[in-house]
Specification:
The chain is built from seven helices and seven strands. By secondary structure, it is an alpha/beta fold. A hairpin with a 4-residue loop joins β1 and β2. It is globular, with a radius of gyration of 16 Å.
């Protein structure tokens, strides 16, 4: 399903995409976070609903996938737009209103979404698991600065997951990245 919901944290209407294998209520949820320039609907075109249906058909315990429009801010507040606050304060309520479990959450992020998933794990240690693919992580301020996403080096140091790896202890974590990907060295770290 694709719904338009009002995000107070983002100060705008956004798409909420829910993908689930059947009409069962109470399913655990994987939050799917898009990369910079992407949006929640992009996961439909990417084929995620078919992958989820096939996984459940092959015996995976059913779960739902939820995606929301997170903008291009690397999950930091910019003006009246705060995608991270939307994830922490609004998304759980939206999931509960739709009959999904809010006490059994995982997160999967691609590129900028990987950055966001790791930031979410730092603030929400109750996440059951976090997975990132080609996570947009920056080993040096000079690399981060080139993205024009951070106000300054202090903000980058505060948010950069590579500078806070110890805060992820205890959360099952999967990291994937192609060997020729620009973020391969960061993924190895």
């Amino acid at each position: 399903t694709v719904e338009t919901v009002r995000s107070k944290a983002r100060g705008r209407d956004i798409d909420l995409v829910i993908m689930k294998p059947d009409a069962t209520d109470g399913l655990p949820v994987c939050l799917l976070l898009h990369g910079r320039g992407g949006n929640a609907r992009g996961f439909i075109d990417f084929g995620i609903p078919k992958v989820l249906a096939a996984a459940v058909r092959d015996g995976t315990q059913p779960f739902a996938i939820a995606a929301v429009d997170c903008g291009d801010s690397y999950y930091m507040a910019h003006g009246g737009d705060n995608a991270f606050r939307m994830l922490t304060d609004e998304v759980p309520g939206w999931l509960a209103e739709r009959g999904l479990a809010t006490n059994s959450l995982a997160a999967l992020g691609f590129s900028m979404g990987g950055f966001g998933a790791l930031c979410l794990a730092r603030r929400r240690p109750e996440l059951r698991a976090v997975a990132v693919a080609s996570a947009a992580l920056f080993q040096r301020w000079s690399d981060a600065k080139s993205r024009n996403a951070f106000a300054d080096e202090r903000q980058w140091r505060e948010y950069e997951p590579l500078r806070h790896v110890e805060e992820l202890n205890g959360i099952p974590l999967g990291v994937w990245c192609g060997t020729e990907d620009a973020f391969a060295d960061s993924a190895r770290e």
